[in-house]
Design brief:
single chain, about 130 residues, Nucleotidyltransferase, domain 5, six-stranded mixed sheet, 6 strands
Length: about 130
Amino acid sequence: MLTPDQFRVNDVWIAIRVNEDFLFVKEEPYDMYVLMDAASAYVFGHVLSRVVDEAPLEKDVETLFTKAWSAKCQWAKKLIVPEDSIAKDVFMSQAEKNGLAFDTVQVSELSPIVGPLKELFATGFIGNTT
């Protein structure tokens, strides 16, 4: 299991889908992906991805990385993405373009870091627990 205390602020970023159930916008199903700091769990921002398109659009992920850079005025050293994420390639491509190393892990390994965010998202945004 990876925990926040294993990282230094802005050394490692995590890109992950936060919703368990689809989000519906004008009756279209979407997933929401966030880019967050592994040490502080600070969320730099999010992108929505239509489920039929599967992965977020490259331009949206590029904008998300730019927003993260603007918050810290530096790039992280590494990006971690769940190995089974359908958005893995688009996030890893953007990491590579910006000089970040990248790694994949099982989503369960990220639970201590992203679990509280996913729970808050499910109870606060969706209105129920999953």
